[in-house]
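*** Residues and shapes ***
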Amino acid sequence: MRRYGKNPDEDDIRVRPNPKGNRPRTHTRPKHEDAEDGMVLTVDRGRLTCLVDDRTVTAMKARELGRKAAVVGDRVSLVGDLSGDKDTLARIVRIGTRTSVLRRTADDDDPFERVVVANADQLAIVTALADPEPRPRMIDRCLVAAYDGGLSPLLVLTKSDLASADKLLEAYTPLGVPYVVTSREELENGDAADRVRELLNDRVTAFVGHSGVGKTTLVNALVPKDRRRTTGVVNAVTGRGRHTTTSALALPLPDGRGWVVDTPGVRSFGLHHVDPSRVINAFPDLQPGTEDCPRGCTHDGQEPECALDAWVAEGHADPARLDSLRRLLATRERREGD
């Protein structure tokens, strides 16, 4: 057995190796100064498909990001194998600041929010005029989510050959929401895609709608080279379509003049995450009237001292706009039905 003297030097000290076989923890993280920028196109079971320059790269989230998740539309920084070759894998080491976020919950009682898409400029709410029947409450909920997330809404009405759009548009004209009406024949000959595309140029637009409304059919017409499987038959009993889009996917418009994000069909759009006080931000003509409201006023028509009634009565805003605001606020408190 080796003995140490009274004054051993450092070379005489035996340091036992780490019994766990790993390096000690440190708070210092690599800066990844050589990381390249990209955009998340789709997410599938922990694997993210990203666009880096003109290459499609498969990546995974780096451990140092912790619980922070990347979603479709995120601007990210990647390291590793960025060749895009088969069986290669890169790592996402940074997620950029988001300019907008579209969120939803499963229902109004579910506190767990799901980020649908990030950094979109516009939300296209696709609704069929018949087969299945339009659901105004679903439209209202999507509008609230758009306003809350910083997206501009666009109403896309399909199947106008089966029913008129006049009645539905009467309810949404006061909101000032832009709209486009299409028929199935126009989708087939390309006229509908041309008219819709004019409203999408130079923007990132997320498409949402419940199953069977023709959302993915429209996306296929807009981006014909990247066709997705479309909806089959609408159930004759429930009046609902069947989900065929199972994950969100960002697709570039022809000539590189914008992006469309096709999202899975939804049957409910929960608003548990939305603070009702922020909905008024979508009504700049009504905002000044709230200055005389009592603190904590909900503006929902149930507060006797709400100053918005007097503001509208004095002619500062259209009464239909106040009705629209209160209808949207009511949807936040109401659970989505059929």
